[in-house]
Amino acid sequence: MGSPIDHSAHYSFPPVKVHAAFVDPQYWHHRLAEIGGPAATVEDITPGPGTIDLHMTQAIPAEHLPSIVTSIRPGDLVIHRHESWGALDGDRAMGRFSARVDGMPGKAEGALGLAPDAGGSFVVIEGDVEVKIPFLGSKVEGMIVDELVGLFGNEQAFTAQWLSGSR
Q1: Domain total for the chain?
Q2: Which domain of life is it from (predicted)?
């Protein structure tokens, strides 16, 4: 059993506008270029009618990693992410995410939900991180969850600026 991810982001825009960003390939290219880290790339992107499916690669330089991580896996961490969003169903949409790191026995995966609220909309991210390393797995999972929550906060700030037209 892994460590849970539970995060939500509020936007002062209606779900239809937030969803339009999430299924726009340009949004993803700009988001990854701005906050994806060094050498971040969109590997594959498949837009559909009101949907999107994409694969991204990001890296965290070794000098920014805790020593517990570099002792297990030296060098930069190369992260392969997948995200998909389904079409709007009324004013709601669902998606999925997953991530894995080269050379690490673990994964992160879960569900995404977009729904209205009184002041606009919110996105809920629920999932878990699982690292299969004896004795250290749960400690590494906790660090990954903390890093993911920080990343989700940066992505939320980027999205809010994108939606307001300041990007």
Answers
A1: 1
A2: Bacteria
Say whether 79 sits in a helix, a strand or coil.
Answer: strand
Q: Give the integer Cα–Cα distance in Å for 96 and 51.
A: 12
CATH number at residue 118: 3.30.530.20
For residue 54, give both structure tokens. Answer: 């994409």
In single-letter form, the type of residue at position 88 comes to L
List, for the chain, all residue ranges whose pLDDT scores fall below the cut of 50. Answer: none
Sign of CA dihedral 141, 143, 146, 152: negative
Task: Determine the Cα–Cα distance for residues 23 and 27; give it in Å rounded to an integer.
Answer: 8
Residue range of the domain that includes 79: 3-164
Bridge partner residues of 42 (DSSP): 56
For the chain, report the end-to-end CA distance as a whole number of angstroms. Answer: 40
Give all strands of the β-sheet with 51-60 in edge-to-edge order: 3-11, 120-131, 106-117, 93-101, 77-85, 51-60, 41-48
The C-alpha atoms of residue 114 and residue 141 are separated, in whole angstroms, by 26
Per residue in 40-75, pLDDT (tens digit) is 899 999 999 999 999 999 887 778 777 877 777 787
- Phi first, then psi, for residue 18 (nearest 5°) are -65, -45
pLDDT recorded at residue 52: 98
Overall pTM surpassing 0.85 (yes/no): yes
